[in-house]
Amino acid sequence: MIKVSAVRLPIDYNNDDIKHALQKRLNVKERDIVSFELLKLSIDARKKDDVFYTASLAVSLKNEDNVSYDKYIRAPRSLDELGLDMVKKDARVTIVGSGPAGLFSALLLSKVGVKVTVIERGSDVDTRTKAVERMKLSGVLDVETNIQFGEGGAGTFSDGKLYSGINDKFFGVIFGEFVAHGAPEDILYSAHPHIGTDYLKEVVKNMRKDIESLGGKVLFNTKLVDLIIENDKLKEIEISSQGKVERMACDRLILAIGHSARDTFEWLYGKGINMLAKPFSMGVRVEHKQEMISKSQYGKFYDKLPPAIYKLSTRLSNGRSAYTFCMCPGGEVVCASSEEGAVVTNGMSEYARDKENANSAVLVSVTPEDYGGNPLDGIAFQRKYERLAYSISNSYKAPCQLYGDMEKNRASTALLSVKNSYKPGVIPTDLRECLPDFVYDGIKDGIKDFDRKLHGFAHNDTLLTGVETRSSSPVRILRDEQYESNVKGVYPCGEGAGYAGGITSSATDGIKVALSIYKEIMSK
To answer: Which end of the chain, N or C, is surrounded by fewer C-beta atoms within 10 Å?
Structure first.
């Protein structure tokens, strides 16, 4: 096969259009094209009167020696294709957390014959969905099963975006495994792949069933509460389930905890696990009508293309950055609280992305200098503003403000054309009551600059709902080149440990940590 890039396709393309475009590009007859496969598909909307798709394809020809194109060699698309040998001795690994890092490390190790036990403080995804819906309808929070905690991790209730700012050799494996476990096949070639929360719920469930079929155990509603360490080496762990605490033998522990496992960070620090404070970001969720975003991006073709996305950033006059994050086309703003008396927002979309509003985080960078040098000070900083947001209504209703009012430094009293999607509801107010001044001012100035790039972003009716504090972990649990912490046998992993930022990078880190443990097992 050969790789052919930058193939232009109409926005209503079909297979015949692809064949004709390849015939023209390669100067061959249709009968010479044996097969083709989309490798990447993106929308080119630089000219609003001429919007089209551009594609890269793997093409098989009857006689490929007659064309001067690079050979295409498909990268692995499953963990099985990594070609790992089975372990020949009894080996056991315990994994804390069932987000992407935990699931992929558990799946890889299970496939090579390691007996894994996954500990998840929240519930299975079906029970978790009920808890999330109950929160939306009644404002009743379950502090152990919510949008942060439970099967699949925080990403399960998101847009399921898989695009990342980095590139890695394991991305093909990750995408292939997602498809094998029920994700839409277009993630294999979309320039901005996403799964959607509706598909993700089934994907993580299928991955768990696969782990169990290979001999692994998944323990829900089970919390890691202590490490038993002797001579800087892990010997046992203590877990708590339904009020009962018990010890388990454990000499290899993958800490794939999420960025909201604050209580776990706190006692790990007390046990002497080395960690540092790290930068993160804070802000709000911004909502516009999706139709406005799509028209601004695609012009007259807006209704013939998928809902438009955006990614915007700017450098503020004070040297900080303001940027959009986790954009959810046709989605909703959700309550992502995991502690009583604290309001946290996030965004979510289903695969169809067919709801009225678009939303994304608008965030401003926060550094350890803003909140103190202790590794746990970032948690206290986040918690302070989450509790201020809760105190505005003494409930999980979220404070909100119109951009037109923010620009005039006045409180909002009512919503206008953009209706809130957040449940259990919003309270119009002045967001200065629950944001640091530098974050509030950064959001205001950032949105003004974003409007120069995406007209309508700074409309008076633009709705801002707060607070968004959990974009990334405020700590980094230190590890060496073998992914091991200062306590031998403890392997910090994924987003909560400070080594990833999203589904794909978390899954990648899970694979790398699992491979390091696999190599260590095989070397003995």
So the answer is: C
